[in-house]
Queue: 2 jobs
Job 1
Amino acid sequence: MVVKPAPAAPPLPALAVRPAHVAIIMDGNGRWATSHALSRSDGHRAGAQAIRPVIERLGEHGVGVLTLFGFSTENWGRPRTEVETILKLGAEFIDTYTDELNRNGVRLQHLGDPARLPGWLRRRVQKAVDRTAGNDRMIVNLAFNYGGRADIVQSVARLLAEGARPEEITEEAISTHLATAGLPDVDLLIRTGGEHRVSNFLVWQATYAELYFTEVFWPDFDAAQVDAALVEFARRNRRFGLVPTTSVEDAGTAE
Ligand code: FPP
């Protein structure tokens, strides 16, 4: 993969609060390509190149977990050549950046069912996961063949396989059997490319996430865009279904 030199990043804005877990739907590669008279493959390539500076910037902000939607369970329905391009770019990303991410304390993890991934990608993912397993500065989850509903189904299936009784199928039990077990819920869900949808991403984990939609196509999402999303997050008033007062009379008007 050709490594584009990243333009100098703007000074880091101070934030009163920051998300522990950021998830990103990297949308708009195809439209970015069309707007530059390039092929969809070129768009995905540019999209893959946009990832590293975003990881770096989120790391500078002290974000502990980043989950990237690389390939959804629905994406298998795209033309075969496009599917191959995206999966190959995933493998190339791992080949190009695992060493550097490892040196910088990043732990790579995979979310999604590996069974349907081609062996060459599965092996690379596993190698990168094993290689970076001891790191604790930041976790980067690569969601490949991931679907939010499938994640919930497999969590419940695991619980049942463990012999859980109906009363043991609790929210906590489901959470601890999801692909993201042990990680905080998503605080900030970013979707680039102008669509306002969650598209079967981390549907359970993002229940109380702040949603940030931007018109910017993913290949143009850079350090300044990361800053803008985090500044907006810090402005939001998160209530988690409660009210912003401690008054007992006012309680009970959950949204
Ligand atoms: C959405 O754009 C993007 C994808 C379905 C694939 C994202 C993949 C990458 C950025 C490359 C490899 C990934 C990793 C994690 C290394 P779209 O094709 O739906 O764009 P459009 O809506 O403009 O057509």
Job 2
Amino acid sequence: ADVFTYDPGFTSTASCDSTITFIDGDKGELWYRGYPIEQLADKSNYLEVCYLLLYGELPSAEQMKDFELRVTRHTMVHEQMHNFFRGFRRDAHPMATLVGVVGAMSAFYHDSTDVADPEQREIASIRLIAKLPTIAAMAYKYSIGQPFVYPRNDLDYAANFLHMCFAVPAEPYKVDPALARAMDRIFTLHADHEQNASTSTVRLAGSSGANPFACIAAGIACLWGPAHGGANQACLEMLREIGTVDRIPEYIAKAKDKDDPFRLMGFGHRVYKNFDPRAKVMKESADEVLELLGIHNNPTLQVAKELEKIALEDEYFVSKKLYPNVDFYSGIILEAMGFPTSMFTPIFALSRTVGWISQWKEMIADPQNKIGRPRQLYVGSERRDYQDIAKR
Ligand code: CMC
């Protein structure tokens, strides 16, 4: 009989080789194409990072200008697509809407099904990066009953997203450049993270040669769960539920109790066993944004900081190497910007789209690529004979 390695959760299986992202979990390091995330978050911007992830190098000024033009040309969605949104209940979770609408893009761009054509792969990548913010903003507008706001290509990527989310036709809306910068940084910090669950989902879906828009929809579905991208929403809701610093010990005890399924959301990571470098940048950003908006003594931030402090001194969290992850502080920034918690994971999804599509492109272009097909250890019944229903 065949012998297989049994590795549930893929804790020790490499599914591919990749040149895109490097993580050293013990040192708390994250690089995109060799560049440390701290430098990119500080000095670069999201669209430049998109170029880097997609093509492997930082662009020249001319290449950057051309890339920006290519992306902005595709920010609008097909008018017909508005009907898709209208088919959803107003109270649908925006992630549900996103899965449906992005999956539907495979019908609008059916030519992209020809994944063997590098030009089709290229245009699909650009379309996804350009349209995801528009689709996420439309999901939000639809959920609050406001009219859709068309993209503005004179604004940069992050400012345009804020505009599409917060502008209303009746009132002038001006994007605060400092807030746009903070938004851009959130996008950058989420842009890629090697073979996490959603990226592996995109690769697995794509390994059969499926349409890229459909593959990205599969990635969005995977990201939604609270153990993955859904943790940012779950974390802020947890911080709100804790409410005051004096209730923290109660929640720490719950998280440690093996008979209680509760976990501290925004804590722990499969790979980072020292700290999550994204969380460090995010924490600084949270302080900056609250200062900028003049929000002092924010109770959620107070609870978050105190919870972090208590957990980092607690034997349980120390011995299991559980540290705040990227989702721990991002929600505080997004809440301060005015986003409801249901939009946190869609923002993660639109940021991660470039990572998914870069990984998908890398896989399709790799001559070694074969369909992903894990094996199993069968632990079911022995062979048995069918019994007629009257005899059971
Ligand atoms: N609170 C309390 N205990 C925890 C937590 C937590 N947040 N995370 C892990 N543990 C415990 C877990 O109970 C287990 O204990 P034991 O060894 O006694 O059974 C041990 O730590 C190892 O946990 P695991 O579930 O085997 O580790 P994993 O690598 O499979 O899971 C994780 C990683 C991120 C899913 C997990 O830490 C978790 O559920 N965290 C909360 C959700 C979260 O914040 N997710 C966001 C991840 S980062 C960004 C993203 O992907 O979106």
